[in-house]
Amino acid sequence: MSSAKRRRILEIVATDSTFERTDHRGREVWLGKCLHCNTYLAISLEGEPISRATIEHIIPRVHGGTDALENLGLACARCNQGKGSRHDRHFDRDPRVRQLVDRLLERRRERWRDPDDA
Questions:
Q1: What is the mean pLDDT of the chain?
Q2: What is the domain partition of the chain in residue ranges?
Q3: How far is CA 99 from CA 27, 28, 93, 102, in A?
Q4: What's the pLDDT at 115?
Q5: What is the CA radius of gyration of the chain?
Q6: Sign of the Cα pseudo-torsion (92, 104, 79, 27, in order)
Q7: What is the 3-state secondary structure (H, E, C) of the chain?
Q8: Rounded CA gap, 93 and 110, in Å?
């Protein structure tokens, strides 16, 4: 994984209040929750996913979503891949997909913390 991607993951961790620095299986990590299903995700202090954590673009890039931290979250690979394969291509045509995206954006706002507080 590139150092830029690890930095981006740490930026997301710093702005997600579910992530706390803790001891996990004998090593210090960031432990937080999937944006979709709330399963636990572990990230090394260097930004390397220990669990199957992935970067989630809430509004898909192909539909105008950006790399702004407000549009990014960490999700387990299963949830992220499921959203991508089942929902992202229907973003413009299916109101249920827009509802899903709105719920994820709201969840991201609820979890938001100032990165200086991490």
A1: 91
A2: 3-117
A3: 38, 37, 12, 5
A4: 81
A5: 14
A6: positive
A7: CCHHHHHHHHHHHHCECCCEEEEECCEEEEEEECCCCCCEEEEECCCCECCCEEEEECCCHHHCCCCCHHHEEEEEHHHHHHHHHHCHHHCCCCHHHHHHHHHHHHHHHHHECCHHHC
A8: 27
Q: How many Å apart are CA 83 and CA 87, to the nearest integer? A: 5
Q: What percent of the chain has pLDDT over 70?
A: 92
Residue with tokens 């999937």: 34
2 conformational bin, left if phi > 0, alpha if psi -120 to 50, beta if neither: beta
Give me the pLDDT at residue 109, please: 97
pTM of the predicted structure, to 2 decimals: 0.90
